[in-house]
């Protein structure tokens, strides 16, 4: 009896301690990208959202927003039955756009308009950037709270668009790149929770022709007016295609190709890859029966043929735009059918594939021969395993994270040139011959893309907490975010 009483007392003490750590001090058990648990201190979710809401209210008080258009909450041309009964007025507020150029000088054309840049290859090809960083790090132009989730930014006309979790809503928000000021926010009731990876939306919005196409973690696809946030149309891609959600939610960023928006619900009976009319939301075509993966569709040209490149749960395929006809396929299987990295185009007829979960990397060659596509493996090994980061190509060398270690490979042979530098399961992009890395711990690093050795030039903390979101770079402005914070840096050459 004494033993039972002592055991009960110990359990009560442990429970009380856990409650204090969880509710009082904000400690959480959180998994890193390798699945290892760790105890971290986070601001309690309710307090974090309250701080975000207070910050945005202060912004609006400092510079009052004009009222949204009277027709902002709805569009009479929406698809029938498209407005859910629990929908809230989607446009929270609209601020006047900040001037970005004089009337005599037109603003630059939109560039980084979606996930990993215009080609989805993680390469910035605009102006040169500043590569001489102070030893104590760069000073952000602005830094502020942001809602939860793992999306990156699409940037156009001086505005940055992302999707966040705020309380029980997924929210697409537009920010002024120069100031961080929220210009509009559009939300709907949706809350994706997943204890291993984390809560919130995953897919980066796509900007095209003054519209933003955003996909929530539960499959809600919405087309919004990029200037006001006004809802144009919506569809639940899982329900519409008889599909079930993935363990870690819908993560593939929508691809706009001509007049179509391509998404990957993973439905059966030919509903795995689906194209919707980008103006109306009507389904145009669908293809395949494959289980979906977490990789985003890409527009590429291989073997002289423009096509849509898709990684499914078990293979990589090339599809004809406008119809979804299968051009070629290559089996690509991992444990639990998990693929979260992007293929890398190596010239006009080769692709790098890389996945974790027991796989590795391979380069395949796709060539057209008499109207047929032939696919063959050039090399394959397990020394580059992209878990949910993606590699880049620079001057014949592949740079990527082998799990959490930066690695350089010869693109032609697959030979490992070097492996050094731990950045956790972070993300990076290539700009002006340098890698800009955002580590899993929220550090920003600059590494020269040098095939001879690992050459880190700078590294300093910028964000607090787990950081899996991809950085974005447009007109020399670098934008970064994670589950709680977002910041901007000016990398223009002075």
Portion of residues within helices: under 10%
CATH class of the domain at 65-126 and 150-291: Mainly Beta
> Which structural category do the helix and sheet elements fall into?
mainly beta
In angstroms, what separates the terminal alpha carbons? Answer: 76 Å
User: Counting H and I runs of at least 4 residues, what is the number of helices?
Assistant: 3
Assembly form of the protein: single chain
How do the strands of the widest beta sheet line up side by side? 3-9-8-7-6
Which fold name corresponds to the CATH topology of the domain at 65-126 and 150-291? Lipocalin
The CATH architecture term of the domain at 65-126 and 150-291 is: Beta Barrel
How large is the share of residues in beta strands? 35-45%
Outline: globular
Stretches where pLDDT is under 50 for at least 5 consecutive residues are 20-27, 65-91
Over the alpha carbons, how many angstroms does the gyration radius reach?
A: 23 Å
pLDDT averaged over residues:
89
Q: Could you tell me the number of beta strands?
A: 36
* Major β-sheet annotation: 5 strands, antiparallel
Summary tags:
single chain, 494 residues, mainly beta, Lipocalin, Thrombin, subunit H, five-stranded mixed sheet, 3 helices, globular
């Amino acid at each position: 009896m004494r033993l039972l009483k002592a055991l009960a007392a110990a359990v009560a003490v442990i429970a009380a301690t856990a409650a204090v750590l969880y509710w009082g001090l904000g400690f959480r058990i959180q998994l890193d990208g390798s699945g290892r648990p760790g105890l971290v201190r986070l601001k309690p979710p309710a307090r974090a959202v309250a701080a975000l809401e207070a910050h945005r209210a202060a912004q609006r008080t400092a510079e009052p927003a004009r009222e949204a258009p009277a027709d902002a909450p709805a569009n009479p041309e929406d698809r029938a039955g498209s407005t859910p009964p629990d929908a809230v007025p989607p446009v929270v507020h609209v601020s006047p756009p900040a001037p970005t150029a004089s009337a005599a000088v037109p603003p630059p054309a939109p560039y980084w308009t979606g996930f990993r840049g215009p080609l989805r290859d993680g390469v910035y090809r605009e102006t040169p950037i500043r590569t001489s960083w102070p030893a104590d790090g760069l000073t952000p132009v602005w830094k502020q709270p942001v809602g939860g989730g793992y999306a990156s930014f699409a940037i156009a006309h001086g505005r940055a668009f992302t999707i966040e979790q705020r309380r029980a809503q997924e929210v697409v928000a537009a920010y002024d790149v120069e100031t961080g000021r929220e210009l509009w926010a559009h939300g709907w009731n949706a809350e994706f929770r997943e204890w291993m990876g984390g809560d919130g939306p995953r897919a980066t919005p796509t900007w095209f022709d003054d519209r933003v196409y955003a996909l929530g973690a539960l499959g809600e696809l919405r087309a919004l007016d990029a200037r006001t946030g006004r809802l144009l149309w919506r569809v639940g891609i899982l329900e519409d295609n008889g599909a079930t959600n993935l363990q870690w939610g819908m993560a593939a960023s929508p691809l706009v190709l001509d007049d179509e928006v391509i998404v990957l619900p993973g439905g059966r009976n030919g509903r795995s890859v689906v194209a919707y009319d980008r103006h109306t939301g009507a389904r145009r075509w669908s293809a395949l029966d494959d289980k979906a993966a977490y990789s985003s569709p890409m527009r590429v040209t291989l073997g002289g043929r423009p096509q849509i490149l898709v990684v499914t749960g078990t293979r990589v395929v090339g599809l004809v735009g406008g119809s979804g006809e299968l051009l070629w396929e290559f089996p690509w299987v991992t444990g639990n059918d998990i693929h979260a990295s992007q293929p890398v185009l190596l010239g006009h007829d080769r692709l790098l594939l890389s996945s974790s979960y027991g796989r590795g990397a391979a380069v395949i060659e796709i060539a057209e021969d008499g109207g047929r596509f032939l696919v063959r493996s050039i090399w394959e090994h397990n020394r580059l395993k992209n878990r949910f980061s993606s590699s880049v190509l620079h001057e014949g060398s592949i740079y990527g994270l082998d799990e959490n270690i930066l690695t350089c490979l010869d693109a032609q042979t697959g030979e490992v040139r070097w492996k050094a530098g731990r950045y956790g399961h972070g993300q990076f992009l290539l700009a002006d011959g340098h890698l800009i890395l955002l580590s899993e711990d929220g550090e920003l690093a600059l590494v020269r893309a040098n095939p001879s050795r690992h050459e880190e030039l700078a590294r300093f903390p910028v964000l607090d907490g787990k950081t899996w979101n991809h950085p974005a770079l447009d007109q020399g402005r670098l934008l970064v975010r994670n589950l709680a914070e977002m910041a901007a840096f000016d990398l223009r050459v002075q």
